[in-house]
């Protein structure tokens, strides 16, 4: 136990929490924006997966990392555009459509990878680029804190910046206000002369773009290649994080950090001869327990 | 009116399938250098030999079970995705029991299956309990549980069941008394098919002919009404999910006992997700599950033949399936046409409404 | 009065038809012409197609046939947005406000002034403030609408329509949620708007109000337009008979009540809602066999929570409920039902039915323990069908067959399905919450007669209704609820006028504890 505590309170560990939280944070913000518009986006998992492949493919073919990221974002938007088309236009059930898209993404990524490289598992044959890490002037010189906060991927800083941007967006802009209103009472918005479907479409496309960034982080920063099913449930964990954050950007960020910590912890416990199967299931177990505790508290509150 | 609804839902299904197959053809044309061969293999490949025809049925057996399981859970409007994990754990538990406690005769079959059912049920109990007692989202919990089932299963397999003399990670060989017989020579069809049929009938009776089934369906349609009517909501939630989990677990046992020498899955086999696809195709009705299962496994076998004979990978089919189920759930697909028909009929039936 | 003025129709709806998905005509060849600057009433009983017609006018529904002519030009509305752009505003019966947003945000939604990409709150408030002054609401502009009382919410809706430049204002059953006093205030404001040149279309089925406020009246029945007449040239009776089609006698045959033993005893009942406020506050009363006790009150004063506690749908925070002399605190809903409680909920679609299931399946939902429905331990299709057909006949449910999904039925027939199920389970205590809301006169009368029949067969009936006419017709005694408490008890409805009742409903007057305590009927008959 003492050893575990020693690890937890190192700068390295805190650094890794921030790093491991990044994809969950992107996914959580993607979940948040669509949830606030009253649409639960189960497809984030698949959207991220697809985007992470397209980021690799894009950067390999253009030779430019930023074009790769752009490619990931565009494919994220395209994927959630598909979701929007089916849900908003053809009136499919959002949950079933999201599930379908996840299944599709899982197969489609392998299909594309195989067509391009002849490999069904990893993209090592593609010479993809990595998003650079940056050191923040001033902060990097602060002892301890500097080594925790500085030296992360550009995308990590972008993720945290997004939290603030989304909070302002939801509060201060027209579209943000409409998104909140649609989520609370869509009838009112429709009769006020605003197309609910347009608001939801925009929210879903933003959600797709953010998922795309998350995907890009997975394959171009977290590791530097695509591997099959590499998102590994982060898109689902994000749904829990968003719910526990009650759809508030700041609180949702905290719960994303919490799950990032679970992830970091499970990585570190492997050092103590704990079987890898058991450490790998920990983040998921954490999520269920957290979900249960959260639900119990909510229930007690509504009864009181 | 009822007939018209049925007409439109079957028309939607047919249209959805047609559109998806057309998309498949377009994709094949785009990526393949031997498109003619690939299309033929996909569509007619499964009919090339007795063995392949047989494998349509053997592929249909496990997804029948998960399809039924998901039907049961979805009928209660619970988006419980645990069928995948239940199937996996069911297979593992059955293999564990069969290899550790070899029983003779019928017990050699019944024992592992019961243990498999229990394992599947236990897993599905978790999200059901969370929903019934704490009102927590069953969907997120069940998605997490699939990963937990996988890693827990692998841990057990690696630590307690592993056959050290075998090259890969696998359990010991199942005893002969715990294997389902092959029933048709030249094919791999095994006696699990009878169990599948048995459970289809059972699920149909349960949902439509018993008080519990009525309660499950009512809860699925309107939870508030169920409570109002004096039905114990918690027990309906839990029973529907546990029964679903048990059926998925039995499916896993049947699969491992009918098709394999040992338990050797190291990732989730995906049958639970197939169950979701099946339930959507069958519109949550057990009586349509066998048809949907055979259709789906025909496509699977076709895709495999295509993959082994041409340059198109079999993952094509997962893309097609996804498009198919999205289109099938697209209520608006034929809505305009339906509305026009309704209006026409109303106008022609004169002034009387 | 319009006869001698220059008459210019500002709006004409011509030959409008609308068929719903279940094949039923909501509107059939309906034409409506509205003059500039008039208050035009649209009357008809529930389900006559008034709301559908107005939804078409507001762009919420697309007509299958017909055209709309606005100031001489044919227009097509694809969405409310189009209708708003052409100067049409609508105040819905159920308000369309986003509760967490402020009055200003709700009023300006979709039409906000923007500065540098962000909403310009200052300008928005100034603009809204100008209109709000007319309604003396300028001080509430920053309040979240969820915190406002019903009457004020309605004003916000009117301001919202005016802000969007409405020239024609549609009000759908605006008085349904108002007390008599609030109704008067609304009418004053409508007259003011009229004098400023606005055109008002006023939907109602309360004929007295229609007579009072409107210039002309259009009458609809069963999806068709029957006639448009000058208000001065027609009596209430004439309107009524044209609305219903026949000379319906609304009068119910009802003899004096003969109350017997107490079947429902409520003592010091309290429900604590969100933010720790007592939504039902220490309420006591009783209902005896053979009487109908009516609870009056403006909606949202705790009636619903009170009923939910009695029917077991809500936890009792303090106090007790006894049914047939048994404390219900530990009993499940099923046990309550077995004791003889039956319940017609106010929201039949949400609580009372599973609308996508068939009539038969809905009817058996509370009778699953009845072995007569089974054959060889399995539910028998034939036996369910026989039972359901019997009830469909007895309760005159209009449908193709008992296999028809409930969603295909009209509101009145849906309610009959609820009633058929609830009245056929050896009920002794009947809780009827808004039992005839939104249903046609024929079905309503049928349900009223059934309630009286059951009363005469020695059932206890607790009626909660916002419809004062219904309250007076059925009740043997009346309790008035205000702010979670009773504000009055009247042992005999004839003793109290509607205006007087309105005073108690608004809490302007409150009876003494002793007077209200008479609602427990303790001295008269001992509880069993």
Automatic annotation (TrEMBL), chain A:
Pfam families associated with the record: BPD_transp_2
Membrane topology of the entry: Multi-pass membrane protein
GO CC, alphabetical: plasma membrane
Origin superkingdom: Bacteria
TM stretches of this protein: 12-33, 39-58, 65-88, 94-116, 154-170, 203-223, 281-297
Keywords, sorted A to Z: Cell membrane, Membrane, Transmembrane, Transmembrane helix
Classification via PANTHER family: GUANOSINE ABC TRANSPORTER PERMEASE PROTEIN NUPQ, SUGAR ABC TRANSPORTER INTEGRAL MEMBRANE PROTEIN-RELATED
Stated name of the protein: ABC transporter permease
Species of origin: Diplocloster agilis
Phylogenetic placement of the source organism: Bacteria, Bacillati, Bacillota, Clostridia, Lachnospirales
Automatic annotation (TrEMBL), chain B:
Protein name, UniProt field: ABC transporter permease
Pfam family, one: BPD_transp_2
Keyword DNA-binding appears in the UniProt entry: no
Lineage: Bacteria, Bacillati, Bacillota, Clostridia, Lachnospirales
Organism: Diplocloster agilis
Keyword flag Phosphoprotein: no
Membrane topology summary: Multi-pass membrane protein
UniProt GO MF annotations: transmembrane transporter activity
GO CC terms, sorted: plasma membrane
Location in or out of the cell: Cell membrane
Swiss-Prot/TrEMBL keywords: Cell membrane, Membrane, Transmembrane, Transmembrane helix
Spans traversing the lipid bilayer: 7-32, 52-74, 86-103, 109-130, 142-161, 189-208, 229-251, 263-281, 288-310, 316-334
InterPro entries registered for this protein in UniProt: ABC_transp_permease (IPR001851)
From TrEMBL, chain C:
Lipid bilayer topology: Peripheral membrane protein
Entry-linked Gene3D superfamilies: P-loop containing nucleotide triphosphate hydrolases
Sequence ranges assigned to domain ABC transporter in this UniProt record: 11-247, 264-508
Primary residence: membrane
Cellular compartments per GO CC: plasma membrane
Annotated localization: Cell membrane
SMART domains in the cross-refs: AAA
Molecular functions (GO terms): ATP binding; ATP hydrolysis activity
Listed CDD domains: ABC_Carb_Monos_I, ABC_Carb_Monos_II
InterPro entries associated with the record: AAA+_ATPase, ABC_carbohydrate_import_ATPase, ABC_transporter-like_ATP-bd, ABC_transporter-like_CS, P-loop_NTPase
Keywords: ATP-binding, Cell membrane, Membrane, Nucleotide-binding, Repeat, Translocase, Transport
The protein's name in its UniProt record: ABC transporter ATP-binding protein
Organism encoding this protein: Diplocloster agilis
